[in-house]
Specification:
The chain is mainly alpha-helical. Helices cover 45% and strands 7% of the residues. It has one domain. The strands form 2 sheets. A two-stranded antiparallel ribbon has the order 1-4. It has a two-stranded antiparallel ribbon with strand order 2-3. The longest helix is centred in the middle third of the chain and has 32 residues. The chain is elongated, with a radius of gyration of 19 Å.
Length: 143
């Protein structure tokens, strides 16, 4: 792991929280990554920051659902047979607000790193797994 020369901290769009909330990402976090202890520790810290920010994102998402979803006769959110929320006439308003929420940029307050792939040992990351860490690393010049 090499420190990035940039003073810029990692900024991600809130829409990434949907990916980080997936069962696949949860399994990925349990995996022993092929990097040094220092790099794995750094990644764990980043993922913990993402998890904390994701909680806020999902709370705000739930507020939007509560505000715009159609309610049944008991006052509960209407759920369709496929498991999705029914918004009815308010669907355009919901989608506009939800898109605004997803496009918000969150500063994690952590500088990106350069991964030293020469240090990687053991099982390699799949392309999907590599995609999970891609927002948090910077590329080497000339690669």
């Amino acid at each position: 792991m090499k420190k990035s020369k940039t003073n810029k901290t990692i900024r991600i769009k809130a829409e990434y929280f949907e990916v980080f909330n997936s069962p696949e990402f949860t399994e990925f976090r349990k995996k022993q990554l092929p990097f040094s202890l220092k790099t794995n520790y750094w990644l764990a810290r980043v993922f913990n920051k993402v998890e904390a920010e994701a909680k806020v994102y999902f709370q705000e998402k739930q507020k939007l659902i509560d505000q715009y979803a159609e309610k049944d006769e008991k006052g509960e959110t209407k759920i369709l047979a496929n498991g999705s929320v029914f918004f009815g006439k308010k669907s355009k308003e919901f989608l506009k607000k939800f898109n605004e929420l997803q496009q918000a940029e969150i500063d994690l307050g952590i500088r990106p790193i350069k991964l030293d792939f020469a240090e990687a040992k053991g099982e390699q990351l799949s392309m999907v797994e590599f995609g999970y860490i891609l927002p948090f690393i910077v590329e080497e010049e000339g690669v």
